Amino acid sequence: xxxxxxxxxxxxxxxxxxxxxxxxxxxxxxxxxxxxxxxxxxxxxxxxxxxxxxxxxxxxxxxxxxxxxxxxxxxxxxxxxxxxxxxxxxxxxxxxxxxxxxxxxxxxxxxxxxxxxxxxx
Length: 121
What we know:
Structural class: alpha+beta
CATH topology: Alpha-Beta Plaits
Order of helices and strands: HEEHEEEHEE
Strand content: 25-35%
Helix content: 40-55%
Distance between the termini: 30 Å
Largest sheet: 3 strands, mixed
CATH class: Alpha Beta
Shape: globular
């Protein structure tokens, strides 16, 4: 559908996420079609709920290009920062959760609860 359609869709998703989350949450485009959402929370169950909210916000985002409606879904990965983390180590774990969501069928949320265990919804 071209770059203009892709740009319009990314802008629509960005607006949906920014408008659908708390004012304290930070939404940014990470690269390509990936977004990052930074939140202050120590509760991984709440983080899973927020990931599910992001997934639903993306799924409910409709973008019209010409006379065609574009619909998309989201695969979400998340984790909590650990004391020894830097940005790279945290993002490696989050990226692994994202790809686990994709591998398990896409349009789902994977949050790490402890080393070696994760939950999917």
